[in-house]
Design brief:
The complex is a heterodimer. Chain A is an alpha+beta fold. Chain A is built from 13 helices and ten strands. Chain A has a six-stranded mixed β-barrel. In chain A, strand 2 and strand 3 form a beta hairpin. By secondary structure, chain B is of the alpha/beta class. A six-stranded mixed sheet of chain B has the order 6-7-8-3-9-10, sandwiched between helices. In chain B, a hairpin with a 2-residue loop joins strand 9 and strand 10. The chains are: A alpha+beta, B alpha/beta. At the A-B interface, helix 1, helix 10 and helix 13 of A face helix 2 and helix 3 of B. Bound molecules: adenosine-5'-diphosphate and magnesium ion (MG). The site of adenosine-5'-diphosphate has 12 residues of chain B, from strand 2 and helix 1.
């Protein structure tokens, strides 16, 4: 019996009971839809996190003041007073793998412009900040060496702060805002960055010259952190070791368990986070796959009913010459067709679902061709897996018993 | 010689102890071109004999030669091939596929042989039983007699040597029954072997030879001298 005729026969079998076929298919539609949506949401979340972290600068090492957490007792990160501007200069001068450093001092402060006020993070930075953090001024200008040398009271605003202090259409540049009651002139607005994995929202910040922050605003000589741009991505580990060495010498620490700073590697954070989101994707996909299996059981159930209902038909087909495999393929193809049709609809549903959720969560939806192929492959496999038993049952029917069946 | 059975026994063992001996030591030969009616009361083993003749079932004991082939021990698939090529079946309940046109019902046996599917053969078969106007009607749109004629067309379409009919007129009125018998007689005239099971003497009298079964045994085997001839105008082409 040829394939075309078998297909036609299977289609007729499906179309005889349209409502039932549609309901059975619905189980597969939902299962496949869930798999496609869940996987694409997981992938979307992963790539959203990844791209945000990469946006922070991929060759970035962050040295935080304070001991790393060991055994639960530790200071709040960055609250220690161990890092100095001299440490930063020494790093740039003596460590060959360090391309550039950005010493930073940040604290929260009250900011006022006319009747608007907000509490935000104020960071004292050097001109190198722009390059090291890969975070640039979009309008106006950034803090210059001259601003730092003369401790000028100038400020560059992150987009969120700018939006909070100034109404739409108002020109912030040139205006004077007050930070802790000290007047600052706004000289620029930073580009939009979004929150960087784990760290604070970089758009909700105000940048001022480091010297101004130290002497005029916070009265502190120590840094919160030093951001380090490493010469190339494959030197991260080497740079991290060299920095640790140098700082231990400078801080006169011989026991590595007593170090008073912590180095964070952006790449490591990235890896950890992608592992987490990867696991999440698997978990979501797994849960969705269970619903696909439930859909498959529905297919099996209906195919068994169908075989029973069509016992006489099977008997007749055998009487006029159908072999076992003819009957087997007829029923198998019916269940595979049901599943594949459900798979097509499911991919569509999953696509719509993931677009909707992606919009809601604010990340791009990633529908990979491979996940669509996978969905088809799986719905086909479900069709075979759950269709084979009813089909074998049909093919083994004895023609006389089948013809006699009432 | 088309059919030859020797010492044929068929025992049904349903459950643990209850055994039903449906056929006892049957010996019989049927030649090409015969028209045989098998008669007997209900439960006498007529259908059982039919099923064995039709390669739908295997005997418990004894040998069965069909067209020179020893059928005993052939695989299910081999039997299916013999049924497809050499035997056409007509059942009491027609057994047409519902929601399927007459033409597609007749095509069915052709789908199961390996050759090119010649739809023209199916049309010719329907023409032969006088249904050239009803190709696309579904069984529910046809009368009982017409449905049985579709079933006969289905049995004819593979051009088998043997046509087996189990109570083909059992579900029909007398006029439709006569039409069916006319077709069988006509086919027999053309050389087809016909074996017909019936419990009605009137129907059996259309055959050339009548075999009587009782409790699984052949009790008589006679050739009819004055058989009934059924000619119904307008049925045959
Ligand atoms: N599959 C079966 N299982 C058990 N007994 C059967 C089966 N088929 C037929 N029989 C028995 O075999 C005997 C002959 O049946 P059958 O050939 O159908 O008779 P007929 O067609 O002459 O009415 C009956 O007693 C019937 O009950
Ligand atoms: Mg019977």
């Amino acid at each position: 019996m040829n394939l075309l005729e078998t297909l036609k026969m299977a289609l007729r079998g499906i179309s005889v009971n349209k409502v039932r076929s549609a309901l059975t298919m619905l189980g597969i539609v939902i299962g496949v839809g869930a798999v496609v949506a869940m996987v694409s949401i997981g992938t979307g979340a992963t790539s959203s996190v990844t791209s945000r972290i990469q946006g922070l600068g991929s060759n970035l090492l962050t040295i935080m003041a304070g001991a790393p957490s060991v055994g639960g007792v530790r200071q709040a990160m960055g609250s220690a007073t161990s890092l100095t501007i001299e440490d930063a200069e020494a790093l740039k001068k003596s460590v060959s793998t360090v391309k550039n450093v950005s010493p930073e001092l940040s604290q929260n402060a009250q900011v006022v412009y006319l009747s608007q006020n907000t509490n935000t993070s104020i960071s004292g930075v050097m001109p190198a900040y722009e390059e090291v953090r890969n975070f640039h001024a979009a309008y106006g200008q950034f803090i210059t060496k001259d601003d730092v040398d003369t401790s000028r009271r100038v400020a560059v605003l992150g987009q969120t702060v700018a939006g909070q202090l100034f109404s739409a259409g108002e020109e912030p540049i040139g205006k004077v805002i007050k930070i802790n009651n000290i007047p600052f002139q706004v000289i620029g607005i930073m580009e939009q960055k979004g929150s960087g994995g784990g760290s604070s929202n970089m758009d909700d910040t105000i940048l001022i010259p480091l010297s101004t922050a130290m002497h005029r605003v916070f009265g502190s000589r120590s840094l919160r952190q030093i951001s380090v741009e490493v010469a190339s991505a494959d030197q991260m580990d080497q740079a991290s070791a060299e920095i640790t060495n140098l700082l231990m010498i400078r801080h006169k620490i011989s026991d590595s368990s007593k170090i008073d700073f912590q180095i964070m590697n952006q790449a490591e954070v990235l890896n950890t986070l992608s592992e987490v989101t990867g696991t999440l994707t698997l978990l979501l996909g797994g849960i969705a796959a269970i619903s696909l299996i439930v859909g498959g059981i529905g297919i099996m159930n209906i195919m068994l009913v169908s075989v029973t209902e069509r016992t006489r038909e099977i008997g007749l087909r055998k009487a006029v010459g159908a072999k076992r495999r003819d009957v087997l393929f007829q029923f198998l193809i019916e269940s595979v067709l049901l599943c594949l049709a459900g798979g097509v609809a499911g991919v569509g549903l999953g696509f719509l679902g993931s677009v909707a959720i992606g919009q809601y969560a604010g990340w791009g939806t990633v529908i990979s061709i491979s996940s669509i192929w996978l969905a088809f492959f799986f719905s086909g496999a479900v069709g075979v897996f759950f269709g084979i038993y009813p089909a074998i049952k049909a093919s083994r029917l004895n023609p006389i018993d089948a013809l006699r069946y009432e | 010689m088309l059919i030859s059975v020797t010492n044929l026994r068929k025992v049904y063992s349903s459950g643990d102890e209850v055994e039903v001996v449906a056929l006892k030591d049957a010996d019989l030969t049927i030649e090409h071109g015969e028209f045989v009616a098998i008669m007997g009361p209900s439960g006498s083993g007529k259908s059982t004999l039919m099923h064995i003749f039709g390669c739908l079932d295997q005997p418990t004991e004894g040998t069965y030669l069909f067209d020179g082939i020893d059928v005993g021990g052939l695989s299910d698939d081999k039997l299916a091939e013999i049924r497809n090529k050499k035997i056409g079946f007509v059942f009491q309940q027609f057994n047409l596929l519902p929601r399927t046109s007459a033409l597609d019902n007749v095509i069915l046996p052709l789908l199961y042989n390996r050759e090119f599917i010649d739809r023209e053969k199916a049309r010719l078969a329907l023409d032969r039983v006088g249904l050239s106007e009803r190709y696309h009607h579904h069984p529910s749109q046809l009368s009982g007699g017409q449905q049985q004629r579709v079933a006969i067309a289905r049995a004819l379409v593979t051009e088998p040597t043997l046509i087996m009919a189990d109570e083909p007129t059992g579900a029909l009125d007398t006029k439709s029954g006569d039409e069916i018998m006319a077709i069988f007689q006509e086919l027999n005239e053309e050389g087809k072997t016909i074996i017909l099971v019936t419990h009605e003497l009137y129907i059996a009298e259309h055959a050339k030879r009548v075999i009587f079964l009782k409790d699984g045994e052949i009790v008589s085997d006679k050739r009819l001298k004055n058989r009934k001839i059924s000619k119904v105008a307008g049925v045959m082409a």
